Amino acid sequence: MAGELKDNRGRGEAEWRWPSVHPEGRKFGLIALVAALAVLFGLDWEYLGWPMLALTVFVFAFFRDPERVVPQGEHLIVSPADGLVSLITQVPPPPELQGDDGSGRGLGTEPVTRISIFMSVFDVHINRAPVSGTLQRVVYIPGKFLNADLDKASEENERQHMLIERADGVPIGFTQIAGLVARRIIPFVKPGDLLAAGQRIGLIRFGSRVDVYLPAGTDSRVLLGQKVVAGETVLAETGKQGLIEGVSL
Fold it and tell me: Is 208 a catalytic residue?
């Protein structure tokens, strides 16, 4: 993934810019805009036209695609999603990510730390690769559309599992989960693609969740209730363990 190198010694440039709108969302924004203008100026229904125009702004904002500065480090696992850390728990990986299906070794059957990130309709919904490596597996599973904040959403909702194998052979699994409002998971990548950490890999429309399965012997570096940023927040460092505490103020 090409990009400008920045570091903690001041190299690189920083400037504020309006985030772009992802192409996947432009068609929805334009449809909403045409409908709003038709109602507002064509039918002269101001009481309906102005709310529709506000909805158009929301649609464009929902599909915003800001640039991110991705921390570089072969042992770092960055957040694949913007949102709230809603669950941190020890669970066995999903069956679809456990064994070797011919595409590469899986995560095994022993419990590992799972970090669940809930994305509200106000969060950026572009998902990013948590590590650099080869995308070995993509498994789509149709399902329900329960509230993505619920623990059982990991097993019952529409979801898509992905498995990335790093250059050192360590597999990292994560799952995109559709939510109560989300109705479609859209991938940007396919098995065999070589990914960079923080690279855009897909989106989930209108509220959802992403689960990340950390390798054995690795603890979370984020806390329950913490807000994380896709491609920037470091979720964990492989092989690092230890209790981290925080205080809600």
Answer: yes
